[in-house]
Design a protein that fits this description.
- The protein is mainly β and 192 residues long.
- The protein folds into two domains: 84 residues, no CATH class; 100 residues, SOR catalytic domain (Immunoglobulin-like, Sandwich), CATH 2.60.40.
- Helices cover 0% and strands 56% of the residues.
- This is Calcium-binding protein.
Length: 192
């Protein structure tokens, strides 16, 4: 294979896309096989005013099309060589209070889940999503899920827990087909 002569990506459902083909690297594996990697630059910043309707609907499952050049001058067109998920970026915060807290007392862990809006290029609260509250005991390496909380109408999170150990609290959102997975920073809470 000589290389790629064209690569394009777009949403499978509505056909919208917003990418620039930036680079291609091909590595010869044998006399008949090469592996090529194409780099695309995705820029949702130009979408507002360029795509009809809600531009956030361009998130979801996208497909890759490519035209391959052969060494003998022939070519092969693939209208569906691969798929990937284009996701809107997300943010997640966590705050545990009061700090420090007495053993056996109630701690309130709050936070907010938000995601990028490609209409106004700002982050807005993401409502109605299941987010996991996780805890890691001081001196250990791993978090474990304590409970799942649904975000409020502006993405807010809040739950109360009884504290028995010092450690860090965080929120974990596993993501969706259209929104990226995100983990908040841990908020360390000591006992008094």
């Amino acid at each position: 294979m000589k290389g790629l002569s064209d690569v394009s990506v777009f949403n499978k459902t509505n056909g919208w896309g917003f990418s620039d083909w930036a680079d291609t690297r091909c590595e010869k594996k044998s006399s008949t096989t090469s592996v090529c990697t194409a780099t695309m630059t995705i820029a949702p910043g130009w979408l507002p005013g360029s795509v009809p309707g809600d531009v956030n609907r361009t998130a979801g499952v996208w497909q890759v099309n490519a035209t391959v050049k052969a060494n003998d001058g022939d070519y092969w067109i693939s209208d569906h060589i691969a798929e990937f998920k284009m996701k809107r970026a997300s943010k997640l915060t966590a705050d545990a209070a009061p700090e420090p807290v007495a053993k056996g007392a109630t701690l309130t862990v709050s936070g907010k889940l938000s995601r990028a809006n490609w209409e106004d290029l700002k982050y807005h609260g993401y409502a109605g999503q299941d987010v996991k509250l996780q805890f890691k005991q001081a001196g250990t390496a791993h978090y474990s899920t304590v409970r799942t909380v649904k975000t409020g109408y502006v993405g807010q999170l809040s739950t109360k827990v009884t504290v028995t150990l010092a450690g860090s609290w965080r929120w974990y959102f596993p993501g969706t087909t259209t929104t990226a997975r995100v983990v908040s920073a841990g908020d360390a809470v000591t006992l008094k």
